[in-house]
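Recall the central idea of this unit: under ordinary conditions, the amino acid sequence of a chain determines the structure it adopts. In this exercise we apply that idea directly, starting from the sequence alone.
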Amino acid sequence: MPPAPTAPSSSATQTEESRHDPRIPLLFLASGAAALIYELAWFQWLQLVLGLTSLSLGLILGTFMGGMGLGSLLLPRWIDSRHSPLRVFAALE
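Accordingly, the structure predicted from this sequence is:
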């Protein structure tokens, strides 16, 4: 008769929880804030150069969405699945 499964020990649960640093959401927040600042700066610059708000906003959104799509297609081919997603994000930033 096989042994009965045991509940995970509290030390195993603590080591799993301790791997998640509470500062990570703050880093994502800072990254998003920096991206928003860059987006606003590019929007203002393109508005001055092109003179049209809708065209400059369309260029920014198209570039952003195109970059996201291209990255989601190409990045899995270049980066091995063994790499930590957090380290990959940090390297891309």
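The first helix runs from residue 10 to 18.
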